[in-house]
Design a protein that fits this description.
Mean pLDDT of chain B: 85
Helix content of chain A: over 70%
Shape of chain B: globular
Number of helices of chain A: 32
Helix content of chain B: 55-70%
Largest sheet of chain A: 2 strands, antiparallel
Number of domains of chain B: 1
Oligomer: heterodimer
Low-confidence stretches of chain A: 760-786
Shape of chain A: elongated
Structural class of chain A: mainly alpha
Radius of gyration of chain B: 18 Å
Radius of gyration of chain A: 32 Å
Number of strands of chain B: 2
Strand order of the largest sheet of chain B: 1-2
Largest sheet of chain B: 2 strands, antiparallel
Distance between the termini of chain B: 7 Å
Number of helices of chain B: 6
Strand content of chain B: 5-15%
């Protein structure tokens, strides 16, 4: 499975190249891989649907119990099929939807990275690996939401989504570490064998993990980022923000339910948050008029419903959750793609401007109606099966049956309104003029929604297919035990059916009064200053203001102040620690000092003093260079030839760089007062003394055998190299070096950006606000130019 | 070109033409021998970067830039990619991430040639260092335009 996940990342790297080679067919070419992977996961179904659990493991950082380990069971295979299956259609769809866009190659790159990350997330067996993929989905979705990065709004929304999910991710990481600690293993397959609700760390880790899952899956009060993420191109919304990424949080909750789920804290939190999210989402959806906005809010509702179901903790609820999840992915993916078609082929983005398109777009209309009927939960579509199960699960829940069933029925009434909007509003009634000449799209864009809608119908008529092959095993993974309920289309006339019919009737009634309903609730807009988004904006504004304040205080643009602050801080902290040491004794031994060492030392001393005292930049520079060469000599004396050579070369390059900027400095003048100079001298000398003492102290107080002898001993037999320094750099501690060269690269980009993007004389704070966005634009447009 | 480069020295310019290829060869030499003798990617990279910077001082910015053909930031990117990719081969033989892999090729005339992931990693470091130093240098020169 490692190769499966990696193959997507590798393909992602080649996406721009594929785009250049195949031009307008590139999306179709790229779609082959997810299609193959879909078939690959299908081939596992016979095994997995028997309840088999397949694990594979590659070592990654075995010393830290971090492995590239993967786990395939009913739940992960369900997600993997959704990711690869819908992903295939999305690639075909995007290829047509964004045809001719100049950055299409980059779009495919991010989309495939996202696909790989999402697949890795649902297949990971190791918590840390899962977290890495989790963050990768955040980053790639940031790039996708902000794909139209020339628009300020798009950047801002992308930023918002990133901030909310990253904060959650941080909490999640801490929660995972606690979970791993409590379970004694980072492998999910081990963790799921245990029940940790009694553990001392249970509550803190639950809070942190829930925070991560709730932010990712847009639960109230974090729901605001999801509708805002609709700034992304529609294929992205259809894929990330309905079918896959937002379900990552749900996946996590479902995955951990057997271990963490059996407690009042879990059940009540999830039910409450889920129900509130469900109502918030659907009420907001009923008031929006933009096609994508309505869909986005109804996705929030679906995510709330799933969370609520996972909070019930019963066997029926587990089955209802996975069924609802599959049904939702099928119809919502289709509906989002239809929204994109409306925009692309008719120029319609708003329900108020769409009417009577059924003659011009008959095929799209038919598909939209099927998908919307599934959303409304009308028999015989799969949405009906899911809704019946949902109502039944809530009715037979372990707690709060009455309030939850009321919330569910109210939500369902509004869902019917939304479904009616999608199934009726754009297609029937008087024909309105559209910005573009409306027509059905080609097969590429219609294929995805058609297949998804057909599956909704197929699974609705024959629910046992989905049940047997997918949902039983998935529900078993969620519930942590065998499932004895089976899916059926017709359960006879019972309470869920009656509730279903009630919500259908009231929903249609509400649809006829839609305009009045929106007018009635207009007053709510005035309350938006109390909402979580306003709070978020206030917090961000506060953060920026604080950053500006501390930047003005600490980073005032004078190098001398930076140096002073840094050195003085170090002096205070280290000096304080040294003063508190109990056994402060030094082993000083001057007997084996050689004559050449003493000479170099004297030369260095003279050089330093002259460098401080000379009255010319060039002379000071030359003296500093000499100082560096002297230090290099000392390295050579102590047989660190590599370090010596490096020192010489770095000195050379430093001088070269300084020469380039030297003549830009003002002429040499004495600017600071004598008092200041005395202060600087005291700080400089005391820090020098302190460092010397520190080094002497460390070398004489070493209690453990150094690691140096180990490296020297192992260099030739294990690293096959006689140059120990180099073997350490490129073999023993190669990961450190990798980190260092990444820093080097960042420095290079930083220098480049700083010099090329100077904002002139504008104040620092204003520059700060724009810095991020400008850097991004510059980097990408430079990339394009080359 | 800005004022301090106007005084072009014929001696330096001619000397550079001869020394430059030698310096670049030397940097490769340092890079390749690094595993057993003093040297390695970092040192080699610094020498190569210094050599190109010498060209910059001896002739002018366009000629130094054309010597490189690509933007130095691209060199950084390629270097990073090579270094990062060299961590992966061990995964395919079932060993830990970043475990060094050694292969010996037997060439007809040159005899056995030892290749290893640390070598590729070092090449990545080499390119990164060249790219970073030259980005800094070139950027500072460009700032004068």
């Amino acid at each position: 499975m490692l190769y499966v996940v990696l193959s997507l990342f590798v393909l992602a790297c080649f996406a721009p190249l594929v785009h250049r080679t195949f031009g307008r067919h590139s999306g179709n070419v790229l779609a082959v891989l997810p299609a193959v992977l879909f078939a690959y996961f299908i081939s596992y179904l016979p095994l997995v649907s028997q309840g088999e659990l397949i694990t594979q493991r590659w070592l990654w950082f075995p010393g830290m119990n971090i492995h590239l380990s993967f786990l395939l069971d009913g739940l992960s295979v369900l997600f993997a099929l959704l990711i690869t299956g819908i992903g295939t259609f999305i690639l075909l769809y995007a290829n047509r939807y964004l045809a001719g866009h100049r950055a299409l190659g980059r779009f495919f790159l991010f989309l495939l990275i996202f696909m790989g990350a999402m697949l890795g997330l649902v297949l990971s067996d190791n918590l840390i690996t899962l977290f890495v993929f989790w963050e990768l989905t955040t980053v790639s979705s940031f790039m996708l939401i902000g794909f139209n990065h020339e628009e300020a709004e798009s950047r801002q929304k992308a930023h918002q989504g990133l901030m909310v999910t990253v904060i959650g991710g941080l909490a999640l990481m801490t929660g995972f570490i606690m979970l791993g600690f409590a379970a004694g293993s980072y492998e999910l397959s081990d963790i799921l064998q245990q029940e940790l609700t009694e553990h001392a760390l249970y509550l803190p880790m639950l809070i942190l993990i829930l925070l991560g899952a709730f932010t990712k899956s847009a639960q109230t009060p974090f729901h605001f980022w999801l509708p805002n993420a609709m700034a992304a191109p529609t294929p992205v919304s259809a894929y990330l923000h309905s079918a896959t990424m937002v379900k990552a949080g749900i996946y996590l909750l479902a995955r951990l339910q057997p271990t963490l789920g059996d407690s009042a804290a879990w059940m009540l939190t999830l039910s409450a948050v889920g129900a509130v999210t469900m109502l918030t989402g659907i009420v907001l959806a009923s008031r929006a008029t933009g096609v994508k906005k309505v869909l986005a809010y109804s996705t929030v509702m679906a995510l709330g419903t799933l969370t609520m179901l996972l909070g019930l903790g019963t066997e029926k609820a587990a089955l209802a959750a996975v069924t609802f999840l599959l049904a939702h992915a099928l119809y919502k993916g289709a509906l989002f793609m239809i929204a994109g078609i409306l925009d692309h082929e008719a120029g319609v983005k708003d329900f108020l401007k769409a009417s009577g398109l059924r003659h011009k777009m008959p095929k799209t209309c038919a598909v939209a109606i099927i998908a919307a009927l599934s959303l409304a939960g009308v028999i015989p579509l799969f949405g009906f099966v899911a809704k019946e199960l949902l109502l039944e699960a809530v009715l037979n829940g372990s707690h709060w049956q009455i309030p939850l069933i009321i919330a569910t029925v109210i939500a369902n009434i509004f869902v019917v309104l939304v479904a009616a909007l999608l199934a009726i509003k754009p297609w029937f009634g008087a024909s309105l003029p559209t910005p573009k000449a409306a027509h059905d799209p080609g097969i590429a864009m219609l294929l995805g929604p058609t297949v998804l809608a057909t599956l909704s119908l197929l699974f609705g008529l024959f629910p046992f297919i989905a049940d047997k092959w997918l949902l039983q095993a998935a529900a078993k993974a969620v519930y942590g035990g065998d499932i004895t309920t089976y899916l059926a289309l017709w359960h006879g006339v019972n309470l869920p059916l009656l509730l279903s019919i009630t919500s259908l009737t009231f929903g249609l009634l509400l649809y006829s009064q839609w305009a009045r309903w929106r007018k009635l609730t207009q007053g709510l807009d005035r309350l938006s200053f109390l909402g979580p988004e306003a709070l978020y904006n206030k917090m961000m504004a506060g953060l920026v203001a604080f950053a500006a304040w501390q930047t003005n205080v600490l980073q005032n643009g004078y190098l001398r102040n930076y140096l002073l602050t840094t050195i003085a801080t170090m002096l205070l902290l280290v000096g304080w620690a040294m003063l508190r040491l109990d056994n402060f004794h030094l082993n000083l031994n001057f007997q084996d000092v050689k004559i050449q060492e003493a000479t170099v030392f004297l030369i260095l001393l003279v050089t330093i003093l002259s460098a401080v005292l000379v009255k010319s930049f060039l002379a000071a520079l030359a003296l500093l260079g000499a100082l560096g060469f002297g230090v290099a000599l000392i390295y050579v004396f102590f047989s660190a030839v590599d370090v010596g050579i490096t020192q010489v070369l770095v000195e050379t390059i430093t001088v070269l760089l300084l020469v380039l900027v030297l003549y830009r400095l003002p002429e040499f003048r004495k600017l600071s007062s004598n008092a200041n100079r005395a202060r600087d001298a005291i700080i400089a000398i005391s820090s020098g003394v302190m460092i010397t003492l520190l080094i002497l102290l460390v070398t004489s107080a070493r209690s453990m055998e150094g690691i140096a002898s180990y490296f020297i001993e192992k260099s030739v037999p294990e690293g096959f190299g006689r140059n120990v320094v180099n073997v350490i750099l490129v073999d023993f501690r190669a990961l450190d070096t990798l980190g260092e060269i990444f820093v080097l690269a960042l420095v290079a980009i930083g220098i480049y950006a700083m010099v090329h993007l100077r904002t002139g004389s504008k104040p620092v704070t204003n520059a700060d606000k724009r810095l991020t966005s400008e850097l991004k634009i510059a980097a990408t447009s430079k990339g394009d130019a080359q | 070109m800005s004022r301090q480069f106007n005084m072009r020295s014929l001696i330096l310019s001619t000397g550079t033409t001869i020394v430059l290829p030698l310096l670049l060869l030397f940097s490769l030499f340092l890079l390749l021998r690094g595993h057993n003798e003093p040297g390695g990617g970092f040192i080699g990279g610094l020498v190569a970067a210094a050599a190109i910077a010498l060209k910059l001082f001896a002739d002018d910015y366009p000629s130094a830039k054309s010597l490189l053909r690509v933007h130095p930031l691209q060199i950084v990117g390629v270097g990073l990619a090579i270094a990062a990719l060299s961590s992966l081969p061990s995964l395919f033989v079932g060993e830990n991430f970043f475990t060094a892999q050694w292969w010996t090729l037997y060439l007809p005339i040159f005899g056995p040639l030892k290749l290893s992931t640390p070598l590729f990693f070092d090449i990545g470091v080499y390119l990164c260092v060249i790219g970073t130093v030259l980005t800094a240098t070139f950027t500072l020169v460009e700032a004068e335009h």
